Amino acid sequence: MARNFVFPLKMRIGSPSIALVKEGDTVQRGQCLAEPKGLGAKIHSSVTGQVVQIKAEEICILAEAEQKEEYLPIKECSSIQEYAYEAGIVGAGGGGFPSHIKLQSVIPKGYVIANCVECEPLLNHNVRLLEENPELVLKGIKYSMEATQAPKALLAIKEKNSKAIERIKNLLPNYPEIEIKELPDLYPMGEERAIIHALFKQWLEPNQLPIEVGCVVFNTETLANITRAVEERKPVIDKDITVAGKLAGGSQVLFQVPVGSSIQGLLAKCGGIKGSYGELIMGGPYTGSAQALETAVVTKTSGGAIVTIELPEFSGKLGLLVCACGADESRLRDLAEKMKAQVVGVAYCKNIVSSRGINKCQTPGDCPGQAQAVMQLKKAGAQRILIANCSDCSNTVMNCAPKIGLGVYHQTDHVFRTVDHQLTRRLELGS
To answer: Yes or no: is domain 238-307 CATH 3.40.50?
Structure first.
């Protein structure tokens, strides 16, 4: 059966790409649909079909009923940076920064860092990729080292992922320039500056980038896409994704799902949603966004699709505590509205600073204490507080809020309750 595939023209940091096709055109899987103007990345069709609609923000293609795995390869290139540009590679695990720009960095005394930490709980497609095909990622590290002239690389991964670590270590004799680094299982371990601190005991300023300390950081799947582009001339037309939550078939990792696929269709393949539900969160429990099931699609940066239970109702007075490591104020207000709560105050973690218009934590994962913000919300009349903090921040909140009669709800509670995952505010991290 023919299906519609939707390709947003802005799937990453930068401006929307410019369409190269027009309505009525027939396109092939792998064909370039749009190219960047300024900072951005090329967008390719993941299906063979007909362009049925072009809007300012997206291209819609009606796919042919029968699809093949074959694709139109990108052109032969003279450099790894050019392969990354032609393939439309962007960071697959975050903001989607164009990889060809990172690969232009020259760090002859620095490090390529493979961010294999898989920061957000519940998402595990990166770890599964390392368990099943680690060489795809290790080759991507080598290509990145060649492009940036980095003599060494560090592969950062959570120490709990023992199977993936074993698979990687078995191959490391073939890659003597790559060293594995095992990190603790805390959120937001996986954020670039948190990784830099864990590896080098040095905090970057919120407005600093890893290149300023001689490092270039790439996500697991991004590195795999670099290998695919160089060795197979494959553009980014497929995406690894974790689907989780209130599903009849349970949580699953789906490899190489065509970009532009409807999330509704993916969930149906996983047995469908089990009964009524609360939200569809695209991304992870902490930094994902609630989206409409009917319009959500797979993009180059889609990491997870999580269907949650319904949010609890709280008709009392609620205070919001905003942290740079989790939901912003608008997301917390959205949750409060869905809970039918009355927002009486908003406090910000004292570790937040604004960098390039984005809230950043000065020391992600290392909290200076939240007593002042909690007291502010208590004075505003809050009966409970809704927090968006990291593991350590949540621990500091729990050390003071209950003592003054404030109940605490974490933005991830309804997500983690859906799958019986330990709640952030119940982690035992010490005082």
So the answer is: no
